[in-house]
Each structure stands twice: as structure tokens, then as C-alpha cells.
Amino acid sequence: MIKYQEIANDIRKNILAGQYLSGVQLPLEKEMCAQYNVSRITIKKAVDELVKLGLVIKRRGAGTFVKSIDDEDAKDLSMARQFTGFTETNKGKTLRTEIIKFDVVHPDKEIAAKLQIATDDFVYDIIRVRFADGMPIVIEYTKMPINLIPGIKKDVLLKSIYFYIQHQLKLKIQSAHRSIRAISPNALEIEHLKVRDSFPLLEVEQIAFLDDGRAFEYSISHHRSDQIVFKSVSIRQ
Amino acid sequence: MIKYQEIANDIRKNILAGQYLSGVQLPLEKEMCAQYNVSRITIKKAVDELVKLGLVIKRRGAGTFVKSIDDEDAKDLSMARQFTGFTETNKGKTLRTEIIKFDVVHPDKEIAAKLQIATDDFVYDIIRVRFADGMPIVIEYTKMPINLIPGIKKDVLLKSIYFYIQHQLKLKIQSAHRSIRAISPNALEIEHLKVRDSFPLLEVEQIAFLDDGRAFEYSISHHRSDQIVFKSVSIRQ
DNA sequence: GAGTGGTCTAGACCACCCC
DNA sequence: GGGTGGTCTAGACCACTCG
Fold first, then answer.
1. Could you check: is the Cβ of residue B25 within 7 Å of any atom of nucleic acid strand D?
2. Contact A182 B183 (CB under 8 A)
3. From A200, A228, A233, residue closest to B175, measured CB to CB
4. Cα distance between residue A230 and residue B14, in whole Å
5. Is residue A91's pLDDT more than 80?
6. pLDDT at residue A33 is higher than 80
7. Which residue has the higher pLDDT, B199 or A17?
8. Domain B86-224 carries which CATH code?
9. Engineering a disulfide at B141: which of A49, A207, B212, B220 sits with its beta carbon 3.0 to 4.6 angstroms away?
10. If we measure between CA atoms, which residue out of B235, B233, B234 comes closest to residue B73?
């Protein structure tokens, strides 16, 4: 449908298929214009997608080149889906969710600030443990304003809140701001994640936003460190 | 110099100065065209920078809106420099580096693959502990091909390898691919980072690239978890 | 239906790299 | 000096939101 995405996909496939090897120069923008029969800006936008993905680099005055990366890394990059919840990232596995807590409370000052709501508004206060193939993977502490996300019940929590938000409420999720740290488990986590007190966890603190710019979720997830890797590509401006 | 960056900066400052409050609609693209006397594509590119930063959202058919974020988060986002080494991120502190190991070796198969070199090429094999204000912050295990980065000596390691690469060798760093995990310290780290064996560390595994697409560094950094937070903004496509 | 941002065009000039 | 990608223009049509 959208030309630049189709072209980006096409080039990406060619790279992954080994059409262009590591370090090799891609066709010039002008040549690709002719090849795909589009304007240069469209080609630029397509190739810029691949730069963001980390597959190629561009040098003014020289050309566009495939990065010198490992096949394994290349696949990683290509599948990189920066934005998915537990349900999506563990597709194909048998998932189970245990609800530890499910209340409605007033947010404390800090959380109210992060969600940009008042301390006398109400938020869900949820704690869940998520299992994949019978193994505990992560414990999630979630706070959501009930005004923005009404109607959550236990059956929603047992499946996927994100699915409910997008398909039942028909809301669109736009972005997430994350902070990542390493921490030690507390007593609750030692019990539910079945780890020892010396077992490190990866903490992901997240504020998630709807496409109208409102924050709809503040969550902290503590992941078993043997079950999660966080990947990122950063490009110098 | 570059118009869209200047405009992006100007709008960013206005948002941070409280000119536009959380949730408020920005002027229309058409209006900004008139205001800055540029074409619409230039305005689009400027505002897209702010979308990437996480400060605003755009909705086709509706307009552009400031995200509902905390002042503190806003500042974080605005300073977000995805790409810096130890020296940059700890500016203003008193830095010290201890060299634990500095050899030249053949890379093993896995590292050769990640750097896209042969196992009979040579790489520096470096281990360093970095201190800020007298406190150990991170231990870095670095491998670099000597062909790409020639002439490293102890005085370079004691300061900043990145500074040497950019200012002495006049090479440009383009990007880094990172994987982040939580781990436990090993004996070496317990000693040098002055932590107990139950103290969690944040591992950052990184492959860094020059602007010609060649990988010039494979490194693993183990950070004291009380001294590092990794931040990220992800936008749904 | 009026108005928004998203995509795309055809063309121009510029900064930069490399020969 | 010849050719690269980077920026920018003026204009067009489209998909979408909202009253």
C-alpha cells in the first residue's frame, strides 16, 4: 500500500537473502528511483527505515552500504519489534497469568504526576505473574487510570490488557517510555518467580501512551534475568 | 544551519518552557509554515524529531499534541543522548580508569563473527574498571580489531578510546547495537566493583560501528546496578 | 463536509567524499 | 571535478478525524 514501506521491505529481504553482502554498496538512490519507478524522496524514506533498523549506513558523497553484521544479528534486527507486551513476545508458548492483586486505589503523588492525573482520581492497582510453558517469567505491577481504561475485569487480566485496550475499547497505543535497571528480588518475587534472593532481575519501568498523547499505564516489570534480553539500536545523529 | 533542526529545537524549547502544556494542541503544520517561512515538509521533519524524542504525538485528521508527561520525564527525554561512552555520560565527575588487562590476541569464532573479521586477525583484548568520584562504576571487556583502530597505547586506555578514535584517528562512529541483561558478578567483579556476590549488575553487550559500516568494537560492560539506568523511547510504527 | 497530517512528485541547490 | 546523499521547495492527492 505505502510505497516506501514496500520498497524498504523489498531491500531488507534482499539483504537478508544474501543478495547484498556485508560491506557491499547498495545501488545509488538515482538507480533505485528508476528500478522502483518512484521519486528520490520516496527511496530516501525507504532506505532511512533500514538505517533505523541498523542494517545499512549512508555516507554523503560515497553511497549506501550494508553494515558488517553477523547473520544472527541481522535476523534479530529485522524482527526487532520495539513495542510488544508479554502476550506478543511469548507467542507460540503456553501462557498463563496469575493475579496477585486487583484493586482500585488513589495513586500516590509520584504516580499521579507520571500519569498526569490528580491524586483523587482512581487507578487500577494490579499485580500479576506471567508464565510461559509453565515457567514464571515476569511479575508486573501495573497502574492504570480507570477513566481512560474502563471496564477491566479478571478475565481481561488473565489474557492481555493490551488486547482489550486495542480490540475491545478500540484505542490506539502510540508509544512507551522505559527505564531499565538491574535489581534484586523482594520476598514476593522470590516466592512467585521461584528464585533465590541472589538471583538478579531486570526491571523495566514503563509509561505507555495512547495516540492522543495521554498516559494510560504506569508499570514496573521484574523479569527473571535468564528469560529476558532487551535489544536496542542507537544511531548517531 | 539546518532549518528543520533549528525549528525542532525552537519548538522543543517552547514545550519545555511551558509555552505548550501537556495535552495541548500545537499550531497546525500550515500555520508553522507561515511562522517559520518554510515549506510543509520541513515542518514535518522538524516535528517528527520531537515525535522521536517522545515529546509530542501526531494524529492525522486531528492535529499535533503535546504528550501528557511529567516535567522530570520531559527533561530526561530532551537530554536523551542515546550514544555516549563512559567519559561523556559522567561529565563533571572526577574520572579514573584502572587497566586490568591489555593484550593483543586472536578473536574466538563468536567474536570474529560479530566483528566480521577472521579468527587469524588480531584484536586488542582490554579489561578496564572505570571510577567516577572515586567510586567504581563499571567494568568493561573490550575487543577491537587492531587493523581498524591502530596505535592504542596505555595512555589512550586511561582516558577515552572513543576520544582517540574520533579525534586522533579522525574516524566517525555511526551506531551501536546493544543487548541488555541483568547478571550476577563474578569473582573479578566482586573484587573490582567492590560488591557482594548477591549484588546485581546490568550487562550491556555492544557492537559499535564506524560510518563506513564496519564493526570496530565488541564490548561487554557490567555496571553497578545502583549507578546506571538505561532509558529508551519506543514509538509504534 | 471541512480540515488534519501522510505520502508522493519533479526539480533544485548544497555539503561532502573520492579520484 | 564528478558524483554521492542531505536538505528544501511548491504543489498535489489521499486517509483520516470530527463536528
1. no
2. yes
3. A233
4. 33
5. no
6. yes
7. B199
8. 3.40.1410.10
9. B220
10. B233
